[in-house]
Each structure stands twice: as C-alpha cells, then as structure tokens.
Amino acid sequence: MTASASSPHVLMTGAYPEWDMAPMQASYTLHRLWEAPDRAAFVAAHAADIRAIATKGELGADAALIASLPRLELVACYGVGTDAIDLAACRARGIRVSNTPDVLNGDVADLAVGLTLALQRSIAAGDRFVRSGAWADGPMPLATRVFGQRIGIAGFGRIGSTIARRLSGFDVEIGYFSRTPKAGSPNRHFESLAAMAGWCDVLIVILPGGEATRGIVDADVLRALGPQGWLVNVSRGSTVDEAALLQALASRSIAGAALDVFLNEPRIDPRFAALDNVVLTPHHGSGTGQTRRAMGELVRRNLEAHFAGRPLVTPVV
Ligand code: 8YV
User: Is residue 262 lining ligand 1, measured as CB closer than 6 Å?
Assistant: First the structure.
C-alpha cells in the first residue's frame, strides 16, 4: 500500500527496517534522502512539500537541513539521543522534536553489562583463542574478576540507573557521576568525573552526547582510571577524547576498553582494530529486533499524533 497524494510528505534521512518502511509508506509520501545522488538538489526539489523529517540517532538533522525546509513542523528521531539534531534551530522556528526514550533502556543496559563481562573476562579474546587453535599450544592468559569491583557509571538517567539495577546482582560496588544526586539511590554520588574515575575499576559511560559532554572523558580522567582501570562506552563517541584514549590503550596506561560508539561511525579510526585490549561493537546498544520494533512504532505514533493535531507521545521540544 502506498500513501494517497494528499498524505503528508516526510523526508527520511536513512532507511528504517523493512517492517517500519511498509507502514511508513502506507501513511506518508516518503522522500528517501539516503538514495539521492545529489542530496542538496533532492532536498530543494521537495522542500516545498516536506512537513516532517524521520531521522535516526546518529544521522540527526543539522541546521542546514532544517533551514532548507520552510514547511518543516516535526523532526521524529528513531533513537533516544538527539545530539545530532539542531534543537536550537528547531526551537527558534517552533519545530517539534520527538525521540524514542525508555523502550531501549533495557537493551543498552544489557549491552553495557555484557561488554564489561566480555572485556574483563576476555570473552571475545577467548573466542578468538579457541577458533584460532591457539588453545592446543597452552592455556590463555588469566582474566580479571568482575564481582567485588567498583563500577562507576557516568550519566545516571534512565539508562544509567537501569545499568546500576542490572549490576546490583553482580556483587559490585556502584558509584555514579551526575549533576545532581539521585534521590533514594543507595549508590555513591560523585560530582567530579575524574574523582569517580580514580575511585572505580570500571568506568561505564552513558552520558548524553552534545557540546556539554564533548571529550569529557579526557586524558585526566583516563589517567585517574589508571593502569588497572577499564572503560566501557555505550553513549556517543563524542564523550571520549579519542586521541587520548588511543594513546592510553596503546601505552596500557588504562587496562582496556569496550566500545560500542566511536567518532566517525561507521568508518572508525583503524588503530582500534589493531589493539588487543579492546572489545569493539558496531553501535548496537539498542540493536535487538524487539527494541528496534518498539522504536519504529514510537516514531510512527509520534508522527501520527502530530499530524492528527495531538500532543507528541515522547516530545523533546
Ligand atoms: C541509534 C542510539 O539511534 O538511541 C540512540 O540514541 O544511538 C541508537 O538507538 C540506532 O542506531 C538507530 O539508528
């Protein structure tokens, strides 16, 4: 089924899974930006009709794209992070913005815990060890115990507190870094990220991306984490000073890192792949079929609410 001629025009910045494309196509006149050989010409050709952008966390909508769409009313984001959307430009023009919070908390938290285990218990390295046949030549190096450690969570919003809940079964001590202490939390609050990095064995980063957190995990924080300290990043590549991290990993001034996010995804710095003290995953925090379906549904519910003149289901702006 395709939309009728009068259905609202929506610019999609990237493909959604096919189970989302079919209902989107049934309700809207879709313009597929990622298929356009000349993006500027494509946007200019449809600008007079487009009333909404359906984007993704990593693609967002920048000031130039927003400025080129005079009839834009809504930016609907498939993803919770809106750091790639120019929210100020949207506010200035009264353009609404929605995202997909909550439905992905459990998955991102599971991956954060899984990466911590994979990193310290050498699960990915163990898999390589068995597959390569190296086991026949002797045992693999010993790993690091997970239970009994101190784990610091940087960012204690919906996902950060879900990570703490997951970890509460692991017999670890949990601290967190956030602007304000969370009322009722049994965990230790830190006002300084470097102070928490000095306290913890594992630093899990789940801060929102954007200017306020750019490079917040810097050389000082990595120094405080130290040669016995581990970094797990499931937030945005931008929260970490990547040059400082690569240097700390190569010189073993931190023990290792598990990274789901990077600068310049998906063409990440090739130096990561050459390191043996990292576990790398392709920005897959929300990457399960169940959660991606829920995210797609939430995007559609927001579009539907907007075009029916109702309040957004999960508004950002
Ligand atoms: C991505 C994410 O949006 O929710 C976020 O902020 O980073 C992810 O869920 C996902 O890659 C969808 O494209």
Answer: no
